[in-house]
Design brief:
The structure holds four protein chains of four kinds.
Chain B: H1 11-25, H2 66-80, E1 83-96, E2 99-100, E3 115-116, E4 123-128, H3 143-149, E5 157-159, E6 165-167, E7 170-177, E8 180-185, H4 199-210, E9 227-234, E10 239-244, H5 251-257, H6 264-268, H7 272-275, E11 285-291, E12 295-300, E13 313-318, H8 322-330, E14 336-337, H9 342-350, E15 354-369, H10 379-388, H11 391-398, E16 403-405, H12 428-438, E17 443-450, H13 457-469, E18 474-481, H14 483-490, E19 501-507, H15 514-521, H16 533-543
Helix pairs in contact in B: 2-16, 10-12, 15-16
Chain C: H1 3-31, H2 36-40, H3 47-56, H4 63-75, H5 89-124, H6 129-143, H7 146-160, H8 173-181, H9 186-224, H10 227-234, H11 239-277, H12 282-292, H13 295-323, H14 326-329
Helix pairs in contact in C: 1-13, 5-6, 5-9, 5-11, 5-13, 6-9, 7-9, 7-11, 8-9, 9-11, 11-12, 11-13, 12-13
Chain D: E1 2-3, E2 6-7, H1 10-22, H2 24-41, H3 43-46, E3 68-78, E4 81-91, H4 108-144, H5 146-160, H6 164-182, E5 184-187, H7 189-192, H8 195-203, E6 212-215, H9 217-226, H10 228-242, H11 246-253, H12 258-294, H13 304-312, H14 320-347
Antiparallel strand pairs in D: 1-2, 3-4, 5-6
Helix pairs in contact in D: 1-14, 2-4, 2-14, 4-5, 4-9, 4-10, 4-12, 4-14, 6-9, 10-12, 12-13, 12-14, 13-14
Classes of the chains: A alpha/beta, B alpha+beta, C mainly alpha, D mainly alpha.
């Protein structure tokens, strides 16, 4: 599906300022995004100079084991990383002509053509982008909805935010969008007054219907604990769609659900994505989901995209041993002979001092070589389309027993190692 | 419980012999005239040779007057020392400079006697330690309630500041014979409700106290002991006759202290709850507002039979904490603060618009020693304890001089007080000798004191204990208990329930020795800790004679 | 189960508890040493007098008769007559109730108004000066005996500075209302009333201000880590709404529960506060009644307090159910 | 580490250490508590004076650093009325009474030190009593559920309906007749064995110390009795959850006796929240005790609350008499609360255990 011309440029190559070169359809270009957590144990590099792009109306998948930093990456996009975490560097270029015009003069360094670097925009504006620009569907619907407020109300809030946002120009928007303590107290004291309006409530009910919740009018007035898991996730999706976002980030949207429901939710997501032509960032550890949904894939490991490309690039001709390992770990239904070979060892702790400048996978890599002990840039991967790229020396050279690292190499200086 | 634990000798018990004796003595009616005999406080010149030390009791001729017997009784108690004689408590008031007022010996505060010194002094507020226990003047027995009801109610007789008897609702009173006294009721007196005072009201009021079939179970029945009842002698000359069960030498003193006159029809047409929340007296003030337990407000009774009061309103509220009362006085929230403790005196004195006025009260503070338990069954030991106590130091340091030392149960100025007795001097050697003599060397004794019941009670008890403890051959400690605890122990009627050694205060508003000695020291006394035939005899003799004074 | 039925259930339970309270209060008197007679009879009353009194008080009857009479009278709203003043206990007790309610309400208002914003600030500005200030204040607040605080306040503000009355209650709410039409100038009355209420309210309120601040802070910190907070922010909701409409509301659930349990402390605190300020309320009445062994008053007060406690707890339950719809389901 | 049947896992201990290291407040709390406990334990050694001996000649001495000019008032009767003469007297603080003396000339510091004993003993014994009562009730209710549970919990509701302070006042006030007799005078080993004496001679504090120490038994009984509910609630909750655990079911299936199950499984699992609650309750009970003795419902005169009540009458002339014991209470309660917070954060028993007064 990707007839790309400019294949050789790598979106990731750091060019200092201005939006990175990329595909014309790009709606989002992330470059060199790093998010770190500063904990008592030490600094954790959850996301390490992350690069990827998302195009109009596509589903971009990010896959990786749990603990590989997927979710943090997602939160970093919408700027919702809580302390002690902090986005330490990187740019998130988002395509929005109006926004670009608006800030071209004030914050020139944040604007490049139609693209704006949301990281360089003022906080208020960044927050205002949540909803209309980016919105998120979270992993656990139960904990992601406020238990003590009706589902309808919560969706209506999402609608209302955008309604008010449209009502007054972005420039004059205050931190509270003109909704401060005073208003809150008045509203909570007077009956039949609240943040949400009649119309936004009706819109919420429409949305519920849209995501396939039966008799939405009644369900809208029920509380989360009265919903089933699947229904809740549909409600979450409805809430995410309320702002008609350009980019919908779905963080493990199906993990908390049982298999039958998973299918429904995925179908729902795909349908909505197709009819509204939203771009979706699908974050999951489940290659099945990826295979089913995505156009392009990024395989994430230890806070980095270690291999990316079109679905076929990654699935049919993986280069990075980690990708191979992942794929290897899915049971193949066509071939009864079990070729399950789970990856040995655990995801690294991501503790700064324990990572060092090397391929982070080296300690688990069956094909680890001495070259792997230095920082690995992203190389074009031969097989597949131009999209295909990987952070692995094997893109450049064959595996060679000779420079293979001794199996106990990492035992000496690392706690985190495969248990043989 | 009651602030004025005055008692009446349980007349009937002792009077059986007395009446006979009286018949022989055959003297009558001379008690009627209040003026007569008030000066003869010390009859019986035999009391002059006082050089004799208490230990060797010299033989004295038998007295021939009631006063003589009472003085002899006091000497007896001084020598036998059934108590550790402590001090006479003072009533200390803080007083705003907005008013002019002199405190009374009997702890009562009559708003009638208050005069404004400034414009602000026209509306007077008094803060006392507690509020009334209901407004029925005959259904209580303590000073705080007296101070409230007595603004609106009056008795037949009253006392002036010094304690001399004066007529109020009675214009005249006399003994007809040894079992009858007669009151003449004042004319042109009306109750606040407008009804005018009749002899019936007086008779009814007396009967309401002494006869439990008339209305209530009055705790004042013991105040008028020996009074059997009253009836109207003649409505025309407005006389009421009171029948006594026998000669009661102090009947007028009793009437001068209790028996407030109520409106018969008003009482009979209302229930107890109402009577306890409303007032219909003849007094100089009438009730304007009553908040139970909070405040009582009076306004001047303009058609009072005597001159109307000088102040127009009088409000009484309460604060149990002395410091709170003083704070109110100093921040001008009140005009009279009752019971100002010594440590607050200087604070009041130093303020510009308040001052201290104090007066010796009718209350004596003492430590009773049970005569029936070791080591207190030895008079020598009891005297030793008295010698061990440094009374002057206690009065000087604990009471900051708000008290005067005593040598006998009866207070100075009371009828029957023995002026020849001096307080036990502090003499540790003598005390230790006496202890050896008593054979109780090495005794360990414990003084039980109520907490915060009397002025500085705990401090006094602890001081006494540590002073006695200084004796090489006695060790003493003090233990404090709730007053209610002590009361429940001393009121059971049998001496075994009492602590061996306890601090108590005793107020006596009749100004007559008998009302202290009889209940506390006579063998049939309700609260007695002592038993001695000689003393009982002296008391019986005294009660068999009419009183020279009132 | 609907809201109504939920409350009904609570109500029925409440009645049971009240009955328990009444019974305990009755039993209390008979396991207590000393007889009511000691109260009624004068110090030196004769044994005959004491006997007569015993009969008047019906103490000569068998226990169960006394109990049944007692219950029956109570049902008719008759709590007996004060041994001291012969005034109906119901009258005497209910006369004191407003003062105590006034005090408790004032203290609660002080507590809520101060503590909730304080708690939120301290939670949202964690590890900042504001937080440290709030935390130390609340620690101090829950550790200071309120009677001592009261004494110190009187010493400073009443005795030394003389800006507030030292003690006692001026007018009161009802009189203040009356003053609108009454002869006395409304303003003076109200100021006098509030002035007399101020120090006691602070004295009683401090502990709860501190307590609620602690609860709100810790609860808020817990809630802020909940998933829905992030989700709510993700949809771009204003921070004010996130904090107060979503987070605080859920924080209040545990807070309300604890406060329900702490009502007893509030009343107990009121008792001792009244003792410090000579505040003519139930507390003063109770202490007086205990010292004087005035049983009808003591029993009446305890019953009123117990009942009030039960009622308040029903209110709390209702509030609880409103804040957290899940409890009704359970 | 084992305490009776309960063993504390090394993880728990690690958490305690970690929390202790990370939180300065925890350290402050522990220091405060240790200081107070030591003061209470070795009172007869460190108290400069016998807390009971009074010296009326040196009454109301101010603390070091404060010099107090007070009016000494003398009075004399002049024809029936009293004349008061006041002259100024300067009272200097003395090193012998670093915190001054009260109206009886008793050393305030010594009384504060001995007061710590009363407060801590009442706090500890009261809490233990409350815990025993409450946990027993709570476990029974939670373990058997059904009727027993209802009955016990309704009882708890009833006793909750009596504010502890009010109930305590009522009980103590009404039983006060026996109070003095029940208050046990325990002999002070440090004194009777002469340890304290020799120590004091060594450091030059020759004053003899009281050989006995009054334990306000009624107060302990009452505060224990009025605070059991808090423990009952916690224990019940724990029991309810634990009894559903598989291993408990298994144990029951294996026919283990209820008592055994409760003691082997339920109790150990409930111990953490109980421990945390107990800590907070000690503080709550210390406050309660001080309130009681302030109101005069106490078995002993060596109590902070009692001293505050006494000092209250002297507030205007000698503020320190009421201030010192007040500060003592605040400090000790803060200390205990901090320790409680520390335990709660470290052991995270999931309770908001604020014991009531």
């Amino acid at each position: 599906m990707s007839e790309t011309t400019s294949g050789t440029e790598r979106a990731g190559t750091p060019t200092g300022d201005g939006a990175p070169e990329g595909h014309p359809d790009d709606v989002l270009r992330v470059r060199d995004l790093s998010t770190r957590f500063f904990t008592e144990e030490g600094q954790i590099n959850a996301v390490e100079s992350l690069d990827f792009t998302v195009r109009d109306g596509e589903v971009f998948g990010i896959v990786g084991e749990s603990g590989s930093g997927k979710s943090v990456a997602a939160l970093s996009l919408v700027d919702l990383v809580d302390s002690p975490g902090r986005i330490t560097s990187g740019e998130v270029w988002y395509r929005d002509a109006d926004l670009a015009d608006e800030f071209r003069d004030d914050v020139p360094e944040a604007v490049d053509g139609e693209f704006v670097d949301t990281r360089r925009l003022p906080e208020g504006v960044r927050r205002a982008l949540r909803g209309p620009a980016f919105s998120m569907v979270f992993q656990d619907p139960m904990s992601s909805l406020n238990p003590s407020i009706t589902v309808g109300e919560q969706i209506a809030e999402a609608v209302e935010v955008q309604r008010r946002a449209r009502a007054n120009p972005r420039r004059t928007r205050s931190r509270t969008q003109g909704y401060g303590m005073g208003r809150l107290i008045v509203d909570s004291l007077l009956p039949n007054r609240g943040y949400t309006s009649e119309s936004s409530m009706n819109r919420a009910i429409e949305l519920l219907e849209q995501v396939g919740i039966p008799d939405p009018a009644e369900r809208a007035h029920e509380y989360p604990h009265q919903f089933s898991g699947g229904m809740l996730q549909r409600a979450m999706i409805a809430q995410a769609l309320a702002g008609e976002p350009d980019v919908l980030i779905a963080d493990e949207p199906t993990t908390a659900l049982d298999v039958t429901i998973q299918a429904q939710i995925l179908n729902l997501l795909r349908d909505l994505q197709e009819e509204q032509d939203t771009s979706v960032v699908m974050i999951t550890h489940d290659l099945g989901v990826i295979a089913r949904m995505c156009n392009r894939v990024g395989v994430m490991y230890a806070g980095q995209i270690v291999e990316r490309g079109t679905l076929s690039d990654v699935f049919d001709s993986p280069v990075h041993p980690y990708t191979e390992g992942l794929i290897g770990s899915i049971p193949d239904l066509d071939d009864p002979a079990p070729r399950l070979q789970p990856i040995e060892g655990n995801v690294p702790s991501l503790l700064d001092e324990e990572m060092g400048g090397r391929c982070f996978f080296a300690d688990r890599c069956p094909k680890a070589m001495s070259d792997c002990l230095q920082p690995i840039p992203e190389y074009d991967a031969e097989p597949g389309t131009d999209e295909h790229a990987a952070r692995c020396v094997l893109t450049e050279r064959e595996y060679d027993e000779a420079d293979a690292l001794p199996p106990d190499h990492f035992d000496r200086n690392e706690e985190v190692r495969g248990d043989e | 419980m009651s602030d004025q634990d005055t008692s009446r000798r349980r007349f009937l018990q002792a009077a059986g012999s007395a009446t006979a004796a009286v018949a022989l003595a055959g003297c009558s009616g001379n008690g009627g005239d209040p003026t007569e005999g008030t000066l003869t406080t010390s009859a019986g010149g035999d009391e002059t040779q006082t050089t004799t030390s208490p230990e060797e009791t010299t033989e004295r001729p038998e007295p021939d007057t009631r006063d003589g017997f009472l003085q002899r009784a006091n000497r007896h108690t001084h020598e036998q020392a059934p108590w550790v004689f402590l001090h006479r408590q003072y009533s200390v008031y803080g007083q705003s400079s907005d008013i002019e007022w002199q405190p009374r010996t009997d702890e009562r505060v009559a708003a009638y006697a208050i005069e404004p010194a400034t414009d602000a002094g026209d509306d007077v507020v008094m803060t006392q330690s507690q509020m009334d226990s209901g407004l029925d003047p005959q259904d209580h027995r303590e000073t705080p309630t007296d101070n409230i009801v007595l603004q609106a109610y009056e008795g037949l007789l009253e006392r002036d500041r010094e304690g001399a008897i004066v007529e109020t609702l009675a214009t005249d009173y006399e003994r007809l014979d040894e079992t009858t006294v007669q009151f003449t009721v004042r004319d042109n007196v009306s109750f606040h409700s407008g009804d005018s005072l009749t002899p019936e009201d007086v008779a009814f009021s007396i009967n309401r106290i002494v006869d439990s079939d008339v209305g209530i179970e009055s705790p004042q029945v013991d105040q008028l002991i020996g009074v059997e009842g009253a009836e109207v002698a003649s409505s025309d000359d407005r006389t009421v006759n009171v029948n006594l069960s026998g000669l009661n030498p102090i009947v007028f003193a009793s009437f001068a202290t209790y028996c407030d006159v109520m409106n018969k029809s008003w009482v009979e047409s209302n229930d107890q709850a109402y009577i306890n929340q409303n007032m219909d007296g003849t007094g100089p003030f009438e009730l304007s507002n009553y908040e139970q337990g909070v405040a009582v407000e009076f306004q001047r009774n303009d058609d009072y039979w005597d001159d109307p009061a000088a102040i127009s309103t009088f409000t009484i509220n309460s604060a149990s904490e002395s410091s709170t009362r003083v704070n109110r006085l100093l921040s001008d929230e009140t005009d009279i603060a009752v019971n100002v403790p010594p440590q607050e005196v200087s604070r009041v004195e130093n303020s510009d618009d308040a001052s201290i006025s104090a007066v010796p009260s009718t209350r004596v503070i003492f430590n009773a020693m049970r005569y029936d338990v070791e080591p207190f069954d030895s008079p020598a030991f009891r005297r030793a304890v008295n010698h061990a106590v440094d009374l002057d130091s206690i009065i000087e340091n604990v009471l900051q001089t708000f008290g005067s030392p005593t040598a006998q149960p009866t207070l100075e100025g009371f009828f029957g007080h023995n002026e020849d007795l001096d307080p036990y001097p502090r003499d540790l050697e003598r005390a230790e000798e006496l202890v050896e003599e008593s054979g109780y060397a090495g005794a360990e004794i414990e003084l039980v004191t109520p907490i915060g019941r009397y002025l500085k009670d705990v401090e006094i008890a602890q001081a006494v204990a540590s002073q006695v403890d200084e004796l090489s051959n006695v060790s003493a400690t003090a233990r404090q208990v709730e007053f209610s605890t002590l009361v429940s122990q001393v009121t059971t009627g049998n001496i075994e329930d009492k602590p061996d050694w306890y601090l108590l205060g005793w107020g006596n508003a009749t100004f007559d020795a008998i009302q202290t000695i009889q209940p506390l020291l006579a063998s049939d006394g309700a609260l007695t800790s002592y038993k001695n035939d000689e003393l009982d005899r002296l008391l019986d003799e005294a009660q068999s004679l009419p009183s020279e004074s009132n | 189960m609907g809201y109504g039925r939920f409350l009904l259930k609570r109500g029925v339970q409440g009645v049971g508890v009240v009955w328990g309270v009444v019974t305990v209060v009755f039993i209390l008197r008979f396991i207590t040493p000393g007889s009511p007679i000691d109260t009624v009879a004068p110090l030196d009353a004769s044994q005959e007098t004491r006997q007569r009194i015993a009969e008047d008080l019906g103490l000569d009857q068998p226990l169960y008769v006394q109990y049944l009479d007692y219950l029956w009278e109570l049902l008719q709203g008759n709590m007996g007559y004060s041994y001291i003043s012969s005034i109906p206990a119901s009258v005497q007790v209910f006369q004191k109730l407003p003062a105590t309610l006034e005090l408790a309400v004032a203290a609660s208002v002080v507590a809520v108004v101060i503590s909730i914003p304080l708690g939120v600030i301290s939670a949202t500005r964690r590890h900042q000066p504001a937080d440290y200030a709030a935390t130390s204040f609340s620690l101090l607040g829950i550790s200071t005996p309120n009677f001592w605080l009261g004494i110190m306040l009187v010493l400073v503000f009443a005795v030394e500075l003389n800006v507030f009355p030292t003690s006692g209650r001026a007018y009161g709410f009802m009189q203040s209302l009356a003053a609108i039409t009454g002869p006395e100038p409304f303003f003076t009355v109200v100021t006098a009333w509030l002035a007399s209420l101020f120090l006691p309210a602070i004295t009683l309120g401090t502990y709860f201000t501190a307590l609620i601040t602690r609860l709100v802070r810790s609860g808020m910190l817990d809630e802020l880590s909940e998933g829905y907070v992030r989700a709510t922010r993700a949809k771009g909701l204003p921070e004010t709404l996130v904090r107060y409409k979503h987070v605080l509301r859920n924080t209040l659930v545990p807070v309300v529960t604890v406060l329900g349990l702490q009502l007893g402390t509030l009343i107990g605190g009121a008792v001792i506060t009244e003792a410090v300020f000579a505040w003519p309320g139930l507390g003063t009445e109770i202490i007086r009644a205990i010292n004087a062994r005035d049983w009808p008053i003591l029993q009446g007060s305890l019953i009123v307090i117990g009942t009030g406690f039960v009622l308040l707890n029903i209110v709390v339950d209702a509030l609880y159910a409103y804040l957290d719809p899940r409890v009704i389901a359970e | 580490m084992k305490i009776g049947p309960i063993s504390i896992s090394p993880r728990t201990i690690r958490n305690l250490r970690k929390e202790f290291r990370s939180s300065g407040l925890a350290r402050i709390g522990v220091v405060l508590v240790v200081v107070i406990v030591l003061a209470a334990a070795f009172a007869p050694m460190i108290a400069p004076h016998n807390p009971r001996t009074q010296n009326l000649d040196r009454a109301q001495l101010p603390p070091l650093g404060f010099t107090d000019t007070e009016q000494r008032t003398s009075t004399e009767m002049v024809n029936g009325s009293v004349q008061t003469v006041t002259e100024n007297v300067t009272v200097n603080a003395t090193a012998q009474h670093p915190l001054g003396t009260n109206s009886l000339g008793q050393d305030i510091l010594s009384r504060a030190i001995y007061g710590a004993r009363t407060s801590l003993l009442v706090g500890l014994f009261g809490t233990v009593l409350a815990a025993l009562l409450g946990v027993t009730v709570g476990l029974t209710a939670g373990y058997y559920r059904g009727r027993i549970d209802d009955a016990l919990m309704r009882t708890a509701d009833v006793s909750l309906a009596f504010p502890s302070l009010v109930l305590a006042i009522a009980l103590i006030g009404l039983f006060s007749r026996f109070q003095a007799d029940v208050a046990i005078a325990i002999t002070d080993p440090l004194v009777t064995t002469g340890v304290a004496g020799s120590f004091r001679d060594a450091v030059g504090l020759p004053t003899p110390m009281p050989e006995t120490f009054v334990l306000p038994t009624v107060v302990i009984l009452v505060v224990g009795f009025v605070n059991w509910v808090w423990f009952a609630r916690i224990a019940r909750g724990e029991a309810l959850s634990v009894r559903e655990e598989e291993y408990v079911k298994a144990a029951r299936a294996l026919g283990a006796s209820d008592v055994r199950i409760v003691f082997r499984h339920v109790l150990p699992n409930s111990i953490t929240p109980i421990l945390v609650l107990a800590t907070i309750q000690v503080a709550a009970i210390i406050l309660l005790e001080s309130a009681l003795s302030f109101l005069g419902f106490s078995g002993t005169t060596l109590s902070w609350g009692f001293d505050i009540a006494q000092g209250r009458d002297y507030l205007s002339s000698s503020w320190w008499i009421a201030t010192v014991p007040g500060i003592a209470i605040v400090l000790s309660v803060i200390g205990i609360n901090l320790v409680g917070d520390w335990l709660r954060d470290a052991l995270d028993p999931g309770i908001e255990g604020e014991g009531g007064m």
